[in-house]
Amino acid sequence: MATLESSREQAAVAAAKGNADLQAPLKASQEKAEFGKRKLLRVQELRKSAAIGQQELDEAETEQRLADVFFLEALETQRVRQLEYQFAAAELALRTIRSPIAGFVVERLLSPGELIRQKPLVKVAQLHPLRIETFVPIGWVGNIAPAMLAQVQPAVEEAPMYDARVETVGLIVDNATATFGMRLTLPNSACRLPAGLACTVPLPLQ
Q1: What is the pTM (predicted TM-score) of this model?
Q2: Which residues pair with 105 in a beta bridge?
Q3: Has residue 165 got a pLDDT over 90?
Protein backbone atom coordinates (compact mmCIF):
# COMPACT_ATOMS: atom_id res chain seq x y z
CA MET A 1 0.00 0.00 0.00
CA ALA A 2 2.79 2.44 0.86
CA THR A 3 6.53 2.60 1.42
CA LEU A 4 8.14 4.86 4.00
CA GLU A 5 11.43 6.63 3.32
CA SER A 6 13.96 3.83 3.68
CA SER A 7 17.25 4.80 1.99
CA ARG A 8 19.22 4.03 5.16
CA GLU A 9 17.56 0.63 5.60
CA GLN A 10 18.15 -0.23 1.94
CA ALA A 11 21.85 0.62 2.30
CA ALA A 12 22.05 -1.52 5.44
CA VAL A 13 20.49 -4.46 3.59
CA ALA A 14 22.93 -4.07 0.69
CA ALA A 15 25.92 -3.99 3.05
CA ALA A 16 24.68 -6.94 5.08
CA LYS A 17 24.01 -8.96 1.93
CA GLY A 18 27.51 -8.20 0.65
CA ASN A 19 29.02 -9.49 3.89
CA ALA A 20 26.78 -12.55 3.88
CA ASP A 21 27.81 -13.41 0.33
CA LEU A 22 31.53 -13.31 1.07
CA GLN A 23 32.95 -16.75 0.40
CA ALA A 24 36.71 -16.14 0.27
CA PRO A 25 37.42 -16.24 4.05
CA LEU A 26 35.40 -19.43 4.47
CA LYS A 27 37.01 -21.05 1.43
CA ALA A 28 40.51 -20.10 2.56
CA SER A 29 40.02 -21.54 6.05
CA GLN A 30 38.51 -24.71 4.56
CA GLU A 31 41.50 -25.18 2.26
CA LYS A 32 43.87 -24.59 5.16
CA ALA A 33 42.07 -27.18 7.29
CA GLU A 34 42.20 -29.76 4.50
CA PHE A 35 45.88 -29.03 3.88
CA GLY A 36 46.55 -29.46 7.59
CA LYS A 37 44.92 -32.89 7.54
CA ARG A 38 47.00 -34.01 4.55
CA LYS A 39 50.18 -32.71 6.15
CA LEU A 40 49.40 -34.48 9.40
CA LEU A 41 48.90 -37.78 7.59
CA ARG A 42 52.30 -37.44 5.91
CA VAL A 43 54.00 -36.54 9.18
CA GLN A 44 52.37 -39.51 10.93
CA GLU A 45 53.69 -41.86 8.26
CA LEU A 46 57.18 -40.38 8.58
CA ARG A 47 56.99 -40.73 12.34
CA LYS A 48 56.19 -44.41 12.03
CA SER A 49 59.45 -44.90 10.16
CA ALA A 50 61.30 -42.70 12.64
CA ALA A 51 62.20 -40.31 9.84
CA ILE A 52 61.18 -37.36 12.01
CA GLY A 53 61.00 -36.72 15.74
CA GLN A 54 58.07 -36.41 18.10
CA GLN A 55 58.31 -32.63 18.09
CA GLU A 56 57.55 -32.41 14.37
CA LEU A 57 54.52 -34.65 14.86
CA ASP A 58 53.28 -32.50 17.74
CA GLU A 59 53.67 -29.37 15.65
CA ALA A 60 51.72 -30.91 12.75
CA GLU A 61 48.92 -32.03 15.07
CA THR A 62 48.71 -28.56 16.63
CA GLU A 63 48.63 -26.89 13.21
CA GLN A 64 45.85 -29.23 12.11
CA ARG A 65 43.77 -28.53 15.24
CA LEU A 66 44.25 -24.78 14.84
CA ALA A 67 43.23 -25.00 11.20
CA ASP A 68 40.02 -26.80 12.24
CA VAL A 69 39.32 -24.08 14.80
CA PHE A 70 39.84 -21.33 12.22
CA PHE A 71 37.49 -23.12 9.83
CA LEU A 72 34.85 -23.42 12.55
CA GLU A 73 35.29 -19.72 13.32
CA ALA A 74 34.80 -18.88 9.64
CA LEU A 75 31.59 -20.95 9.58
CA GLU A 76 30.27 -19.19 12.67
CA THR A 77 31.14 -15.79 11.20
CA GLN A 78 29.25 -16.72 8.03
CA ARG A 79 26.19 -17.69 10.08
CA VAL A 80 26.33 -14.41 11.99
CA ARG A 81 26.52 -12.47 8.73
CA GLN A 82 23.50 -14.34 7.41
CA LEU A 83 21.57 -13.45 10.55
CA GLU A 84 22.63 -9.82 10.25
CA TYR A 85 21.36 -9.80 6.67
CA GLN A 86 18.03 -11.31 7.76
CA PHE A 87 17.73 -8.70 10.51
CA ALA A 88 18.46 -5.84 8.08
CA ALA A 89 15.92 -7.25 5.60
CA ALA A 90 13.32 -7.45 8.37
CA GLU A 91 14.02 -3.83 9.33
CA LEU A 92 13.54 -2.79 5.70
CA ALA A 93 10.30 -4.78 5.47
CA LEU A 94 8.93 -2.72 8.37
CA ARG A 95 9.15 0.35 6.13
CA THR A 96 6.54 -1.16 3.82
CA ILE A 97 2.94 -0.80 4.93
CA ARG A 98 0.70 -3.66 3.86
CA SER A 99 -3.04 -4.06 4.19
CA PRO A 100 -4.11 -6.74 6.68
CA ILE A 101 -6.92 -7.71 4.29
CA ALA A 102 -7.25 -8.24 0.55
CA GLY A 103 -9.58 -5.72 -0.99
CA PHE A 104 -9.95 -2.49 -2.93
CA VAL A 105 -8.80 0.99 -1.97
CA VAL A 106 -11.90 3.15 -1.80
CA GLU A 107 -10.33 6.28 -0.35
CA ARG A 108 -6.78 7.66 -0.02
CA LEU A 109 -6.39 9.71 3.15
CA LEU A 110 -2.76 10.83 2.76
CA SER A 111 -0.64 11.92 -0.20
CA PRO A 112 2.99 11.00 -0.97
CA GLY A 113 5.41 12.99 1.17
CA GLU A 114 2.98 13.69 4.02
CA LEU A 115 3.95 12.94 7.61
CA ILE A 116 1.97 10.02 8.97
CA ARG A 117 1.83 10.63 12.74
CA GLN A 118 -0.42 7.63 13.43
CA LYS A 119 -2.94 8.70 10.79
CA PRO A 120 -4.67 6.15 8.55
CA LEU A 121 -3.34 5.98 4.99
CA VAL A 122 -6.23 4.56 3.03
CA LYS A 123 -9.64 3.01 3.44
CA VAL A 124 -9.87 -0.54 2.09
CA ALA A 125 -13.06 -2.46 1.33
CA GLN A 126 -12.94 -6.25 1.56
CA LEU A 127 -15.12 -8.02 -1.00
CA HIS A 128 -14.18 -11.63 -0.28
CA PRO A 129 -15.65 -12.84 1.88
CA LEU A 130 -18.51 -10.43 2.46
CA ARG A 131 -19.71 -10.10 6.03
CA ILE A 132 -23.39 -9.57 6.66
CA GLU A 133 -24.68 -7.94 9.82
CA THR A 134 -28.36 -8.59 10.52
CA PHE A 135 -30.85 -8.67 13.39
CA VAL A 136 -33.00 -11.62 14.36
CA PRO A 137 -36.29 -11.54 16.30
CA ILE A 138 -35.93 -12.46 19.94
CA GLY A 139 -38.10 -15.56 19.44
CA TRP A 140 -35.18 -17.24 17.63
CA VAL A 141 -32.87 -17.12 20.65
CA GLY A 142 -31.29 -20.55 21.08
CA ASN A 143 -32.33 -21.71 17.60
CA ILE A 144 -29.40 -20.23 15.68
CA ALA A 145 -25.79 -21.36 16.03
CA PRO A 146 -22.50 -20.69 14.25
CA ALA A 147 -21.85 -22.68 11.03
CA MET A 148 -25.56 -22.89 10.16
CA LEU A 149 -26.37 -22.29 6.49
CA ALA A 150 -28.45 -19.27 5.52
CA GLN A 151 -29.92 -17.89 2.30
CA VAL A 152 -29.17 -14.23 1.60
CA GLN A 153 -31.31 -12.12 -0.71
CA PRO A 154 -29.58 -8.89 -1.91
CA ALA A 155 -31.89 -5.90 -2.24
CA VAL A 156 -31.36 -5.76 -6.01
CA GLU A 157 -34.05 -6.47 -8.58
CA GLU A 158 -33.95 -10.09 -9.84
CA ALA A 159 -30.84 -10.86 -7.74
CA PRO A 160 -30.45 -14.57 -6.95
CA MET A 161 -30.17 -16.03 -3.48
CA TYR A 162 -26.68 -16.63 -2.12
CA ASP A 163 -25.47 -19.15 0.43
CA ALA A 164 -23.85 -17.81 3.58
CA ARG A 165 -22.69 -19.27 6.88
CA VAL A 166 -23.42 -17.98 10.34
CA GLU A 167 -20.16 -16.71 11.81
CA THR A 168 -21.24 -15.35 15.19
CA VAL A 169 -24.50 -15.00 17.10
CA GLY A 170 -24.99 -12.05 19.42
CA LEU A 171 -25.33 -12.75 23.13
CA ILE A 172 -27.03 -9.47 24.01
CA VAL A 173 -30.69 -8.74 23.20
CA ASP A 174 -31.81 -5.23 22.28
CA ASN A 175 -34.96 -4.77 24.36
CA ALA A 176 -36.03 -1.72 22.36
CA THR A 177 -36.32 -3.73 19.14
CA ALA A 178 -36.63 -7.23 20.67
CA THR A 179 -33.82 -8.48 18.43
CA PHE A 180 -30.29 -9.81 18.72
CA GLY A 181 -27.42 -9.52 16.27
CA MET A 182 -26.03 -12.11 13.89
CA ARG A 183 -23.05 -12.04 11.53
CA LEU A 184 -22.80 -14.19 8.42
CA THR A 185 -19.98 -14.82 5.95
CA LEU A 186 -20.71 -14.96 2.23
CA PRO A 187 -18.01 -16.19 -0.20
CA ASN A 188 -17.45 -13.67 -3.00
CA SER A 189 -14.19 -14.68 -4.67
CA ALA A 190 -15.38 -13.54 -8.10
CA CYS A 191 -16.50 -10.20 -6.62
CA ARG A 192 -19.95 -10.61 -8.16
CA LEU A 193 -21.54 -8.69 -5.31
CA PRO A 194 -20.48 -5.18 -4.24
CA ALA A 195 -20.04 -4.39 -0.57
CA GLY A 196 -22.58 -2.27 1.21
CA LEU A 197 -25.78 -3.74 -0.29
CA ALA A 198 -28.85 -4.09 1.85
CA CYS A 199 -30.12 -7.67 2.05
CA THR A 200 -32.57 -9.94 3.82
CA VAL A 201 -31.98 -13.31 5.46
CA PRO A 202 -35.13 -15.50 5.45
CA LEU A 203 -35.72 -17.71 8.47
CA PRO A 204 -35.45 -20.51 9.45
CA LEU A 205 -31.81 -21.35 8.80
CA GLN A 206 -30.53 -24.80 7.90
Answers
A1: 0.53
A2: 124
A3: yes
